Every structure is written in C-alpha cells, then in structure tokens.
Amino acid sequence: MNDEQLLRYSRHILLDEIGIEGQERILAAHAVILGAGGLGAPAALYLAASGVGRITVIDDDVVDLSNLQRQIAHSSARVGMAKVQSLAQAVADLNPHPHIEPVQQRADAALLDRLLPSASVVLDCSDNYRTRQLLNAASVRHGVPLVSGAAIRLDAQITVFDPRQPDSPCYACLFEPDAEFEEVQCATMGVLAPLVGIVGSMQAAEALKLIVGIGHSLAGRLWMLDGRSMEFSRMHTTRNPECKVCKDRG
To answer: 96-106, pLDDT tens digit by residue?
Structure first.
C-alpha cells in the first residue's frame, strides 16, 4: 500500500481483526454484485469505500425516478442512465482506486460462469426468484460464498451461503428451485427506504468478513428484521442432503 492508501484505510488498519494484512486482502479481492438497486447501491458503495480492488456489478435496468426514494447511489441527473453505469460513476466519485466493471445485461449461467471463478464473494442484491436460484447454482458450482439479502414493505432478511463449508446450506436447500413462486417486488408492494440500506450495508459487512476471514459469517443463520418494531429474529438453517443443487458438493 502507498501512503495515500494507508491514510484512506487507516480506520480499518487500526482494527486488530483487519490490520495491514487484512486490508491488503480487501485490496486484492473481487466482489460480484448482482443488482444495482436498493440493496446493491449501498453494498457497492461500502465495498468500494473499504477498498475492494475489483467490483463487478450486473444489472440490465435503467434509473427511474421512482428508484430515487431508496437507491442512494443514483441521482436525479442520471434518470434514464443504465443503473450499472450510474453506480460505477457514484463509486468512482467515492473512491477512484477500485476497478469497477459494469455489466448491463440480465444474468445468465454463461455470464456467471465467466465471472465467478475469479470472485472472492458474490452478493445477491436481486429481486427475482429465478435469478436468485441461478446465482445460487453458480455459487455452488464455483465454490464462492454468497451473501443473500432481501427487503419488501417493512420486512427484510439476510443470510450467507458458503459452499466452502460442508454443513452450510445453499439457497435451494431453503427454497425449492422448481417451486411456483409469486414474485413480490417493490414496484407493486412498496418498501421502507432505509430498510434496503440496512440490509445492503449488512451484506457489505458480511462480504468484508468473508474476504478478510474474520468473525463468524451468517452461514447457517437466517436473520429477519421487522421494521415495525426494529427487532431481529433468527432461524437456524441446515443443509438438505437431497438438495438438487448442492447434494453432490464435497
């Protein structure tokens, strides 16, 4: 690290759990974020501010005026711009050092198979059930830890699926891939604006912990937040030995 980086990341370096070695791991890391909206925006900003060296953001949507109530990386001046380009601009304004790779397309297996082999961690910031299943399957195939978040109305949840851990479930262990699932999105149901910020920030924190190798991730624990009472509850999750996605995992 040069002198400018030592100063910029000094508050991380002061932490015994991170220090210079941990910050160097962050600088060398590659985070893939699927979704540049309410969850992806704060997650990307915190990962960039923390110095993650390479950040790939995948989203095929453009900034809409209705997004600005909660998607804090975008601005009125960038309405109509591709979300990945808008987010890349916000990240560059915050920290010019990370390499930002905006990918303006809907994620598919081929794209994920190209990106995940080099990824340190992947963040599910999407709002589509099938996309979540697609990303989970790629996470399992490539052995990359997946930080999953969701928020709707006044309810939110976050967990980690870590295929490197033998006992860690995957997303499909909890939610059957072939199940008929009614999509519930902010566009029709609404969401309390700061709720996505809370979850996106927590996703960034979990991602940094996984990159540095500190603490205990949320693997095996699903945390649920009731925004009405601002109370967390948790549920322990277990791997399904008959899971169609991860049953053959080592």
So the answer is: 999 999 999 99
- Residue 7: count other Cβ atoms within 10 Å of its Cβ: 11
Q: Are 150 and 181 in contact (CB under 8 A)?
A: no
Residue 141's Cβ-side half-sphere holds a number of Cα atoms within 13 Å equal to 15
Residue 60 CB contacts under 8 Å (≥ 6 apart), including other chains = 104, 105, 106
Evaluate if residue 186 carries a pLDDT over 80: no
Neighbouring C-alpha atoms within 13 Å toward the C-beta of 27:
17
Annotated catalytic residue 186: yes
138 domain-assigned: yes
How many domains does the chain fold into?
A: 1
Phi, psi values for residue 30, rounded to 5°: -125, 115
Please, how many CA atoms are within 13 Å of residue 202, restricted to the half-sphere of its CB?
A: 22
Catalytic residue among 125, 170, 173, 186: 186
